[in-house]
Amino acid sequence: DTAVSQTPKYLVTQMGNDKSIKCEQNLGHDTMYWYKQDSKKFLKIMFSYNNKELIINETVPNRFSPKSPDKAHLNLHINSLELGDSAVYFCASSQVGGPGQETQYFGPGTRLLVL
Amino acid sequence: AQSVTQLDSQVPVFEEAPVELRCNYSSSVSVYLFWYVQYPNQGLQLLLKYLSGSTLVKGINGFEAEFNKSQTSFHLRKPSVHISDTAEYFCAVSKASGTYKYIFGTGTRLKVLA
């Protein structure tokens, strides 16, 4: 009964390919996030969706496109992968409004390696 | 804008010794503060958070942190560490209202030695 799950856990691919990472949460939250953790462990937010609407969009290349089919899912599609995209991508969720709204719950991460 | 500084990238400490991991933040508005732990090859787990009220916050696994507004600090402490505490520790800040976007520090690797 994992709260925030991500698939795949590991992803190895060639430069130039297109790939997707999926995230699902069963916490009933209405807000989901994508973070990127680089090789130096630095964590930076990329996107956030609230009830399927984009509310945070940091300076991220257009090759990255998030999609939220419903509030329990937030997928990340990456076009034309580059070496610099190699990182760990974390999904997180929270419930905006009410007690605990400030707390985000993180998934296990997807380790992407671009060769 | 908010920012977070974790001055120590690595902290080695012997088992059963006390430890303090330092976190300083910068913000022109009220903030919430968090400590998350990342065990090897795992996601982030919330240790504790400061929202308001008492400046001493107790978290899971025997950790506590003290919010100091004048020094803009939120240092994490544990009186006696275990081997199992070896992990990466992240301090994070968010605005206390609006969109709760986390700004993370660069992390501190705690290495507990036998």
Which tags fit this structure?
heterodimer; A: 115 residues; mainly beta; B: 114 residues; 6-stranded mixed beta sheet; 4-stranded antiparallel beta sheet; 12 strands; 53% strand
Summarize the SSE layout with pairings:
The complex is a heterodimer of chains A (115) and B (114).
Chain A: E1 4-7, E2 10-13, E3 19-25, E4 31-37, E5 43-50, E6 53-57, E7 64-70, E8 73-78, E9 87-94, E10 105-106, E11 110-114
Parallel strand pairs in A: 2-11
Antiparallel strand pairs in A: 1-3, 3-8, 4-5, 4-9, 5-6, 7-8, 9-10, 9-11
Chain B: E1 3-5, E2 10-14, E3 19-21, E4 24-26, E5 31-38, E6 44-50, E7 56-58, E8 64-68, E9 73-78, E10 87-95, E11 103-104, E12 108-113
Parallel strand pairs in B: 2-12
Antiparallel strand pairs in B: 1-4, 3-9, 5-6, 5-10, 7-8, 8-9, 10-11, 10-12
What features would you describe in this structure?
The complex is a heterodimer of chains A (115) and B (114). Chain A is mainly beta and 115 residues long. Chain A has strands at residues 4-7, 10-13, 19-25, 31-37, 43-50, 53-57, 64-70, 73-78, 87-94, 105-106, 110-114. The relative contact order of chain A is 0.33. The mean pLDDT of chain A is 91. With 114 residues, chain B is mainly beta. In chain B, 0% of the residues lie in helices and 53% in strands. Chain B is built from no helices and 12 strands. In chain B, strands 2, 5, 6, 10, 11 and 12 form a 6-stranded mixed β-sheet that branches. A 4-stranded antiparallel β-sheet of chain B has the order 3-9-8-7, with no helix packed on it. In chain B, a hairpin with a 7-residue loop joins strand 10 (87-95) and strand 11 (103-104). The N and C termini of chain B lie far apart (41 Å). Chain A binds chain B through residues 4, 35, 40-45, 48, 55-56, 90, 92, 94, 96, 101-109, and chain B through 32, 34, 36, 41-46, 49, 51, 88, 90, 94, 96, 99-104, 106-107, 109.
